[in-house]
Amino acid sequence: xxxxxxxxxxxxxxxxxxxxxxxxxxxxxxxxxxxxxxxxxxxxxxxxxxxxxxxxxxxxxxxxxxxxxxxxxxxxxxxxxxxxxxxxxxxxxxxxxxxxxxxxxxxxxxxxxxxxxxxxxxxxxxxxxxxxxxxxxxxxxxxxxxxxxxxxxxxxxxxxxxxxxxxxxxxxxxxxxxxxxxxxxxxxxxxxxxxxxxxxxxxxxxxxxxxxxxxxxxxxxxxxxxxxxxxxxxxxxxxxxxxxxxxxxxxxxxxxxxxxxxxxxxxxxxxxxxxxxxxxxxxxxxxxxxxxxxxxxxxxxxxxxxxxxxxxxxxxxxxxxx
Amino acid sequence: xxxxxxxxxxxxxxxxxxxxxxxxxxxxxxxxxxxxxxxxxxxxxxxxxxxxxxxxxxxxxxxxxxxxxxxxxxxxxxxxxxxxxxxxxxxxxxxxxxxxxxxxxxxxxxxxxxxxxxxxxxxxxxxxxxxxxxxxxxxxxxxxxxxxxxxxxxxxxxxxxxxxxxxxxxxxxxxxxxxxxxxxxxxxxxxxxxxxxxxxxxxxxxxxxxxxxxxxxxxxxxxxxxxxxxxxxxxxx
Lengths: 322, 237
Hints:
The complex is a heterodimer. By secondary structure, chain A is an alpha/beta fold. Chain A contains nine helices and 15 strands. Chain A has three domains: 1-28 and 229-322, Rossmann fold (3-Layer(aba) Sandwich); 56-130, no CATH class; 145-225, no CATH class. In chain A, the strands form three sheets. Chain A has a six-stranded mixed sheet, sandwiched between helices. In chain A, strands 2, 3, 4, 5, 6 and 7 form a six-stranded antiparallel sheet that branches. In chain A, strands 9-10-11 form a three-stranded antiparallel sheet. In chain A, a hairpin with a 2-residue loop joins strand 2 and strand 3. Chain B has a domain at 2-148 and 215-227: Rossmann fold (3-Layer(aba) Sandwich). Helices cover 36% and strands 20% of the residues of chain B. The chains are: A alpha/beta, B alpha/beta.
């Protein structure tokens, strides 16, 4: 799959879109710190997305939970997950990590470039290498919003000193009749910490009271500034967004592309795809679908998308004719 | 003048946000400020892009709403005026192609349609391709401005916004367009034939208020009227 400077992965539920983003998020190193809960490894953030009730562990990274190995490959780089004696060893084809003696399918062997170890049924991994191996990526997901806030609280002093919150607040004003001057975390209501936006008239509004679209926008902008990745991944871009904020986010993403930051999004929404691809000439739509566990991807032009919609064809469910 | 599309994910809105971003016009907005008036882009594209470029040169202080009716085009959009007449909307501009009609026939049709929706005309200013009617609808007064796209120097049977765009391309010497359109010509086809140069033409229009006024006189006047601004931006050469 060839990804454009701005790629929109469009497809129905369970079509493999999110897996692509998660793979690209893990790629640079699953054991680097990600801006989701202090000291969280990137792989733990992906774990949070998949966690159901009390289940823990990383077997979900392997096909049907039982496969012996999984690979993430791009630009000549490979990251492997190898099952071995109840562990999942994570190795790469780049010089990194350590060599490790282990047993695979009953045979003793030495695995090189092991950068960490995951477990089938345990949350805490062992990170042996935490530096970036390829360009950094950041995953924005509605399923990680709370974890992102927790991280911002922990890093708030350094976030404030980055002096970006005022600009982000001003930019968020474009979606509202109100004017926002700044974003802050402080004790205000009941003496408990919360995140607020300062209004130009001096009032404060708790971020949680602004509506999820603006919360998502402000949260994503801050996390992006914290991380400054070369690749931005955004899962379910349309989630909680009204049309105004969708356009605003589309414009921001286009600005990032102009700064040579690659952006890859997923959406179920034809409207979101049309808006974002219409705002940037470098944007491309890829329709994704799964066929017996194999991802199928088809690049489609914006004009063709509109023609199919006008013709009564919903490409999210019309894999057979495209 | 800021443009606030009332359907921000529509094709018209996307075109406006897109050209605004590409040419750094800063005219398309998502901020729901009070609206000075409403612009009906009844024929869609490229009218929406033209409105964006002209708006860059017109009064930066006010915001007007923009709509593209889904099912009607041309003067047919007049039937939607009662829907658009909301408290605070006192100026409505309709941008439409002349097509093959005469200006007098268009005037008659507009007046007839205004009557059909219950709008009474109390004053009329007719400048050919720019018509301004002071109207009353129920207890509400409003100004209705119609800018009709087309250039007489083009001898084509149908006139449209593309007449103006071709004139712009000729003015800037872009795309090798010759002044040879006669009654058999089609300015839409001619304009499409220089598609790779469209952005260049719009960019040159962004840089020259003088050219914009020469190429789009009725549209500029109409948009200035709906924006409430008499004077154009004075910081643009």
